[in-house]
Automatic annotation (TrEMBL):
<feature type="domain" description="Toprim">
    <location>
        <begin position="2"/>
        <end position="116"/>
    </location>
</feature>
<dbReference type="InterPro" id="IPR013497">
    <property type="entry name" value="Topo_IA_cen"/>
</dbReference>
<keyword id="KW-0413">Isomerase</keyword>
<dbReference type="InterPro" id="IPR013825">
    <property type="entry name" value="Topo_IA_cen_sub2"/>
</dbReference>
<dbReference type="GO" id="GO:0003917">
    <property type="term" value="F:DNA topoisomerase type I (single strand cut, ATP-independent) activity"/>
</dbReference>
<dbReference type="InterPro" id="IPR003601">
    <property type="entry name" value="Topo_IA_2"/>
</dbReference>
<keyword id="KW-0238">DNA-binding</keyword>
<protein>
    <recommendedName>
        <fullName>DNA topoisomerase</fullName>
        <ecNumber>5.6.2.1</ecNumber>
    </recommendedName>
</protein>
<dbReference type="InterPro" id="IPR000380">
    <property type="entry name" value="Topo_IA"/>
</dbReference>
<dbReference type="InterPro" id="IPR003602">
    <property type="entry name" value="Topo_IA_DNA-bd_dom"/>
</dbReference>
<dbReference type="Pfam" id="PF01751">
    <property type="entry name" value="Toprim"/>
</dbReference>
<feature type="domain" description="Topo IA-type catalytic">
    <location>
        <begin position="132"/>
        <end position="607"/>
    </location>
</feature>
<dbReference type="GO" id="GO:0006265">
    <property type="term" value="P:DNA topological change"/>
</dbReference>
<keyword id="KW-0799">Topoisomerase</keyword>
<dbReference type="Pfam" id="PF01131">
    <property type="entry name" value="Topoisom_bac"/>
</dbReference>
<comment type="similarity">
    <text>Belongs to the type IA topoisomerase family.</text>
</comment>
<dbReference type="InterPro" id="IPR013824">
    <property type="entry name" value="Topo_IA_cen_sub1"/>
</dbReference>
Length: 804
């Protein structure tokens, strides 16, 4: 028989086709790709609300050519196998493939796998299943809910704020609660009143070990009194008996924890993390990256146990490793029980797992892991960012299967004036356990051994006491990693949507990833040395923050309007309950019609309460008004010249407090940015200079790009965020990549200009010389322009033609 296997991504085709044909001499397999969704719900007009929310899906215009190719291939085969991704979206795509090509969705077989390896593909092909219609209904329900909320409320934003925003204002069922998290955090930051406090360190023993005082002082007089009393105080040393401390290995990666860890350790955005993982998955190196499951397959656990035994010893295998095998009966009970132990136990990166949260896990896949634990490093021709991501996943997966790290901990105390005490905690490793993988531990702790030799209740003299000013009460802005964590905790969206939510609120211009310059304060520190108190005056900055999510004036205006008028459907509990109900639909416990009807009635009810809302604008004086223009906040200036009204627009200073404008406490001179006092009239502006050439950022048909001299560089990694939210530092790395770049495919492959035309440039870090390949047949083969076509088509063509 001849089979046609339909997948989503074209880069999977060649590998899956090879695995299937190599293992089946009787049948012939051909694999084609839909390139994601092939149908769409364009607007509310496509939803018949009165007819149980019956939807009319339309073929996506850009997919029509590829759809006709697939249609012709279907006619040449005996059977079609649907192998779209193993999640709700994939189930939906599989169903609509049946709809478009007149295949019976109840008879057409579906094969699913969580990794692109030979064994997984062959096993899946031998055990096909039917389309799970409950998952299809859940996917459809999510689309309908998103349209009901977004398409009904967004036009109201246009009416009351602006229709002409370059990045199109929008409200979203999950997008708006994500923005609300940033907004509320900013309100908390604004309310905080910082105060000075003194943190004190005492240096004791011949080793000058720094002991920390367990008391803070808030005034200079308080710390002076303490230091004066210290000069005559008798300090007594004591030390606890060693306590065995167990540090548990990290938990297996799910989507959200991988995004957080990659952000914190590799400084990758959630969007970048998912892009890299998609490439690793399609390359057959890791399992599917959109998952809630914290379990592994038995086959992986067995191979990992064997790897640990071979590389280290059996004692490094976690004694409870059987509990992270998918379907383990004891697992759920263990996750919800408090730890019972006579010794102290610390878990790396763990959090309390409540019963509700555990029940919400879709558990459709395994945790994110390498497909082969013995593959410690990827081949040289793999992108360097992908290598770093793979290493992170490989280490976490191995460590999660290993035994606890064991330490001996002692707490040394020295009595202090005013019933306080100085404390120093020291740990000495006894058994490295999972920490042996990264080797981030020390076996030699001289201080630990030294502290145990000091006699109990011995009088100890200080070497120096130093008290330093700190600022209490500072609350940080959120990082992307922290926002992802909060989205998960509050049940806003699902792992597969977190990265798009974080990116969307930046694209809309509501939030900007930026650095905060702290406030400089004159501090007076104190040092006690040889019974003499010294005062040290120093300027110190507090509150410096780097790469944090900062809400913009536009985000504040949008959020406050939505909070005042639609709080019922954008509160966290409502959003979480919607996600819970979608889970129920996926299990056949709730109907699509019921959920969508409730949501639709709530939205309509809230809209009906809105009377004619005036446009949001703040009058500063008779001639000047603060409004939202095409490229963000501007001042609309109205003057009468020769009897005619003349209107011009002036730029607003960055970091201006929109609430102060709203309540009229700022004058026009305090608001207008004199350095750039005309509205940006084109979707471009100068960021700075590079090699004495102006660097201009622009927004074109295919997104953001920069030009300098005769050079052009695509900024696809920055998404579709407003150009005014991008700084010179954001694009500096692109300037340094070379001036003959036409289009970057990945770190190793790019399209470049040459004396005889454009060509494919290929060079890995370990290659001494690059290789060059012709683009001559691309247009003929793909009927596309390599400069502007979908990057997936270009990648697939290069891989198929040159095997790189």
């Amino acid at each position: 028989m001849k089979y046609l296997v339909i997948v989503e991504s074209p880069s999977k085709c060649k590998k899956i086709e090879k695995y299937l044909n190599d293992n089946d001499d009787l049948n012939i397999y051909e694999v084609v790709a839909t390139m994601g969704h092939i149908t769409e719900l364009k607007s509310l007009k496509n939803i018949d609300i009165e007819n149980n929310f019956k939807c009319t899906y339309e073929l996506i215009e850009s997919k029509k050519k590829n759809t006709e190719i697939i249609r012709k291939k279907i006619k040449t085969v005996d059977e079609v196998l649907l192998s779209c991704d193993n999640d709700r979206e994939g189930e939906g795509i599989a169903f609509f493939v049946c709809q478009v090509f007149n295949l019976d969705p109840f008879k057409t077989k579906r094969i699913v796998f969580n990794e692109i390896t030979e064994s997984a593909i062959v096993t899946a092909a031998k055990s096909p299943r039917n389309i799970d219609m409950n998952l299809v209904y859940a996917q459809q329900a999510r689309q309908i809910l998103d349209l009901l909320v977004g398409f009904k409320i967004t036009p109201i934003l246009w009416d009351v704020i602006t229709k002409h925003s370059a990045n199109s204002l929008s409200a979203g069922r999950c997008q708006t609660p994500a923005l609300k998290l940033i907004y509320e955090n900013q309100l908390d930051i604004n309310k905080i009143e910082e105060r000075k406090a003194y943190n004190t360190i005492g240096y004791f023993t011949n080793q000058n070990i720094p002991f920390e005082l367990n008391k803070q002082f808030e005034t200079e007089d308080d710390i002076k009194d303490f230091l004066h009393g210290t000069t005559t105080f008798t300090h007594i040393y004591s030390c606890s008996q060693p306590i065995k401390v167990y540090k548990s290995p990290p938990q297996p990666f799910i989507t959200s924890t991988l995004q957080q860890t990659a952000s914190n350790e590799l400084h990758y955005s959630p969007k970048e993390t998912m892009r890299l993982c998609q490439n690793l998955y399609e390359g057959g190196y890791i399992t599917y990256m959109r998952t809630d499951s914290k379990t592994y397959s038995k086959e992986f656990v067995d191979s990992t146990k064997e790897y640990i035994s071979r590389t280290y010893e059996d004692k490094y295998i976690n004694k409870n490793i059987h509990l992270i095998i998918g379907g383990a009966k004891e697992r759920d009970e263990l996750l919800n029980q408090p730890s019972i132990s006579t010794t102290k136990k610390v878990t790396k990166g763990s959090k309390k797992v409540n019963k509700k949260e555990n029940n919400l896990c879709q558990d459709a896949h395994e945790a994110i892991r390498p497909t082969n634990i013995s593959l410690k490093e990827l081949p040289d021709n793999i992108d360097s960012k992908e290598k770093r991501m793979y290493k992170l996943i490989w280490e976490n997966s191995l460590e999660s299967c290993m035994s606890d790290a064991e330490f001996y901990s002692i707490t040394a105390n020295i009595s202090a004036f005013q019933n306080a005490k100085f404390t120093y905690i020291s740990e000495l490793i006894d058994f490295p356990g999972w920490k042996i993988v990264s080797k981030k531990y020390s076996t030699d702790n001289k201080e630990h051994q030294y502290l145990k030799t000091i006699r109990q209740n011995e009088v100890t003299l200080y070497k120096k006491i130093f008290s330093k000013v700190s600022l209490k009460g500072l609350k940080p802005h959120y990082t992307e990693a922290r926002l992802v964590q909060l989205l998960e905790e509050k049940g806003i969206g699902r792992p597969s949507t977190f990265s798009s939510l974080v990116d969307k609120i930046q694209e809309r211009g509501y939030v900007k990833k930026d650095s905060i310059i702290g406030k400089e304060i004159v501090c007076k520190d104190f040092e006690l040395y040889n019974n003499e108190i010294f005062e040290i005056t120093i300027k110190r900055e507090f509150g410096n923050e780097k790469n944090k999510l900062i809400i913009q004036p536009l985000g504040i205006i949008v959020m406050e309007f939505l909070e005042n008028n639609f709080s019922e459907i954008f509160n966290y509990e409502y959003t979480r309950s919607m996600e819970d109900d979608l889970d129920k639909i996926s299990k056949g416990e709730k109907s699509l019609t019921e959920l969508c009807s409730i949501c639709n009635l709530q939205v309509d009810s809230l809209i009906s309460k809105l009377k004619d809302k005036p446009k949001i604008e703040y009058k500063i004086d008779d001639n000047n008004t603060y409004i939202i223009g095409k490229y963000g906040p501007v001042i609309k200036c109205s003057n009468t010249v020769n009897g005619k009204e003349e209107i011009i627009f002036k730029s607003v200073k960055k970091d201006i407090d929109v609430h102060k404008i709203e309540n009229g406490s700022l004058k026009i001179q305090e608001i207008v940015d004199d350095k750039n006092n005309t509205e940006i009239k084109n979707s471009s502006y100068i960021l700075g200079k590079y090699n004495d050439q102006d660097v201009i950022i622009k927004k074109g048909k295919f997104g953001l790009y920069i030009t300098w001299g005769g050079n052009t560089k695509n900024l696809k990694e920055l998404g579709n965020r407003p150009i005014e939210n991008i700084s010179f530092e954001d694009i500096k790395k692109y300037l340094e990549e070379g001036s003959n770049m036409v289009r970057e495919i990945n770190t190793n492959i790019s399209i470049r200009k040459g004396p005889k035309g454009d060509y494919v440039f290929y060079k890995t870090l370990k290659m001494k010389k690059p290789q060059f390949f012709s683009l001559l047949n691309f247009n003929k083969d793909c009927k596309e322009d390599y400069k502007s076509c979908n990057i997936t088509i270009l990648k697939s063509w290069i891989k198929d033609r040159y095997d790189i």
